[in-house]
Amino acid sequence: MMNLSRAVVRSFATTAGRRSAAVPKEQIEKGYFEIRKVQDHFQKKDGKPVFLKGSAVDQVLYRITMALALVGIGGMGKLFYDLSVPKKE
Questions:
Q1: 8 A C-beta contact, residue 64 and residue 72
Q2: The pTM is what?
Q3: DSSP per residue, the chain
C-alpha cells in the first residue's frame, strides 16, 4: 500500500513539462521577454497604484467604482438621517 501512495503522489507532483513535447528555445525567450516587459511596466515607480497602470479602461472603471461607492455612502447617510430624525407634520 505504501508504494501505491508514493506512486500516486509522484504522478501528481511531477510537472507536465517532462511529458510534453520540447518547446523551441526561441519561443521560450520571446515569451520571457514579453513577460519581463509587462512586469517592468507594472513595477515602474511613477506614483500610480498598480491597478491604474493597465490602460485608460482601468481608470474609467476605477472612477465609476468610486462614484458608485460615494453614491452608496450618500444614500446610507440619507437613510440614517431619515430614520433618526422624525418627520414634522
A1: no
A2: 0.54
A3: -HHHHHHHHHHHHS-GGGTSPPPPHHHHHHHHHHHHHHHHHHH--SS--GGGSS-HHHHHHHHHHHHHHHHHHHHHHHHHHHHHSPPP-
Using an 8 Å Cβ cutoff, are 58 and 52 in contact? yes
Reply yes or no on whether the pLDDT at 11 is more than 70: no
Report the candidate in 36, 37, 66 with the shortest Cα–Cα distance to residue 51: 66
19-33, 38-52, 69-83: least confidently modelled range: 19-33
Cell numbers standing for residue 71: 453614491
| pLDDT reading at 37 higher than 70 | yes
The Cα 3–Cα 6 span in angstroms is: 5
